[in-house]
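Exercise 7.
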Amino acid sequence: MGYSRLRRCFEEILATADIRINGERPWDMQVHRDDVFPRLFAFGSLGMSESYMDGWWDCEQLDEFMNLASAYIR
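Solution. The predicted structure, written as tokens, is:
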């Protein structure tokens, strides 16, 4: 599955939590590397945490991002 397809799938998941990829709100996920998407699907919350620490994505208001996303990302 290509990065763009994985991104669309993840965008749909995040949309249910009112989070946008590269959106303008402080809790929106800012993606710096498209490699993040296969990692998220392969390793779930661990992949999300590790890719954040690796600088592949960030978020201005990480606490609110995690609050919103926690019900949808395991």
